[in-house]
Amino acid sequence: MITQIKGRLVEKNPTYVVVDCNGLGYLLNISLNTYGALPAEENVKLYTHLSIREDAHTLYGFIDKVEREVFKLLISVSGVGPSIARTMLSSMTAEDVQQAIASENVKLIQSVKGIGAKTAQRVIIDLKEKILKTFDLDEVSVTESNTNKEEALSALEVLGFARKQSDKVITNILKESPSASVEELIKKALKNL
Question: MF terms per GO, please (predicted)?
Fold first, then answer.
């Protein structure tokens, strides 16, 4: 198993790179996140995963071990192949994928091209425990020590809404759009209170 490649970057494209290791060129399929994080200099080190199928041996390259681990977890799910996993890691960062799975954000996972509702739910069911264990996430930290949430709750309290009721509404809003700003949280909460 090839686990990492260190060498001279010969060719760089958004979907693949060619790395020259002592005269031998390796073609590595990469995500857009890896593409964006590749250094400008010629020498690179990429962590790899070798996918062996009946008709092809394909190398996938990752800028860090976390992205590779998330990729491996994703392809362990029935219905998620290497190309869908790579698309997912191109649409979101490895950390975003972890958060989406840990917080059971089906809509976010389903927003990835090639993933339907059933596959998104399967990804969550199969990987939630593994993600929480492997990356040492707390379910509490997943709902984030969200300062936006706290600010929105304070504002709603000032407006006269009960904190308990506001908390439920804002938690539901954060499940749908985890990166919502304070203003968005307040506006959406006011519609639901």
Answer: ATP binding; four-way junction DNA binding; four-way junction helicase activity
